[in-house]
Design brief:
- By secondary structure, the protein is α/β, with parallel strands linked by helices.
- 40% of the residues lie in helices and 10% in strands.
- The chain contains 11 helices and 10 strands.
- Helix 1 links the parallel strand 1 and strand 2.
- Helix 7 packs across helix 8.
- The longest helix has 17 residues.
- The protein is globular and about 55 Å long.
- The two termini are 33 Å apart.
- Bound molecules: NADP nicotinamide-adenine-dinucleotide phosphate.
- The site of NADP nicotinamide-adenine-dinucleotide phosphate has 25 residues, from strand 10 and helix 10.
Length: 328
């Protein structure tokens, strides 16, 4: 396993983060423990989760956090992990966001954090994420809430997820002028193949864009992208019968663009040339950027996980990156 750095912290997370969405949900406890064990044995110490995973399903609340909590307790390995989770998500109705129901008051953040500490069965979270933003709320207030929890020892560092780059820059500027703490990492949707934002049901998700790339390049803030493998799309496009058009299927309709078709062709060509899988090209593309990128890989089984971890061995040069992006 390779390890990464997060600027401004002493954390040493594995260079790939295991997506925790399926834990205790689409994967039962036994399968979840097996996946977590395999990741840990491979040197993985960084598992993404959230208070809200997977509350859109019937059954136990915060089941992903609780599964990780039970696993850490059973294995006695908390001190070898970078424990992380997210709170301050909007209200949900089933799996749909309730428009305008942002939850970043001091009360909401504290409520979610206390619940996560219990579910994970820990005293302190190493890296705590705000799952969403509330642009109507001043960054000063939000940072103040988080800094108070750092002081109390509930969290060590904090990051933001689905915050626009301009809001992150505003928070960084406020922190510089006022000597407060600030976000050490940013979690956004980012992969070689990107969906069309205007077709996405969840309007609160933030996708990596030119402003985000500029912000990360200039500040050196770590990027920890989700849907980093574009849900396996480019691999599936090659694996599927040539007669079947997976891009026009319901599951991938937001990704149905000419650019993604072109990127698939280029990734396939580069994969043949370099002798590595298409999915490894997809992950190598992310980690070859000039700032720390730790992809969250949504692997459902050990075979996928091992395949994704192997991608950490590859780096693409700037001409390969330009070729994948623009075909030049
Ligand atoms: N911060 C946020 O708002 C946010 C939002 C969404 C997700 N997340 C986090 O990100 C995690 C992952 O999200 P995601 O599921 O969208 O990520 P993803 O890694 O882009 O997609 C996961 C899918 O990719 C395929 N896959 C996995 N490993 C593969 C491999 N080695 N080769 C080929 N295909 C592979 C599998 O599809 P098949 O099973 O169909 O083969 C898998 O279900 C979540 O569990 C959660 O922790 C965070």
């Amino acid at each position: 396993m390779k390890y990464a750095t997060i600027k401004g912290t002493d954390l040493k997370p594995s260079a790939i983060c295991l997506g925790g969405g399926p834990l205790g949900a689409t994967l039962g406890q036994e399968e979840s423990f097996a996946l977590l064990d395999a990741f840990y044995e491979a040197g993985g110490n960084f598992i993404d989760t959230a208070k809200i995973y997977s509350d859109w399903r019937p059954g136990e609340r915060s089941v992903s956090e609780k599964t990780i909590g039970r696993w850490m307790k059973a294995r006695g390995n908390r001190n070898n992990l970078v424990v992380t989770t997210k709170g301050a998500h909007t209200e949900m109705q089933g799996n749909k966001i309730i428009r305008g129901s942002m939850r970043l008051s001091e009360k909401d953040i504290t409520y979610d954090l206390e619940s996560s500490l219990q579910s994970l069965q820990v005293n302190c979270i190493d890296l705590y994420w705000l799952h969403r933003d509330d642009e109507k709320r001043p960054v000063s207030e939000i940072l103040g809430t988080l800094d108070a929890h750092v002081k109390k020892g509930h969290i060590r560092y904090y990051g933001c997820s689905n915050w626009k780059p301009e809001r992150i820059l505003e928070a960084l500027a406020f922190s510089r002028v006022n000597g407060t703490g600030c976000f050490v990492a940013n979690q956004m949707m980012w992969s070689l193949a990107m969906p069309q934002k205007e077709l996405m049901e969840d309007y609160t998700l933030v996708l990596m864009d030119s402003g985000g790339l500029k912000m990360h390049t200039e500040t050196g803030m770590a990027a920890i992208p989700y849907s980093s493998q574009a849900k396996g799309l480019l691999t599936k496009m090659s694996d599927t019968d040539k007669g079947t058009d997976i891009l026009s299927s319901k599951a991938f309709k937001t990704y149905d663009t000419d650019l993604n078709r072109q990127k698939h062709g280029r990734a396939e060509k580069l994969s043949d040339e370099l002798g590595i899988s298409i999915n490894q090209i997809v992950l190598a593309y992310l980690i070859s950027h000039p700032f720390s990128v730790i992809p969250i890989a949504g692997c459902k089984n050990v075979i996928q996980m091992n395949e994704s971890i192997k991608a950490l061995e590859f780096r693409l040069d700037s001409s390969a990156i330009a070729y994948l992006e623009k075909g030049t």
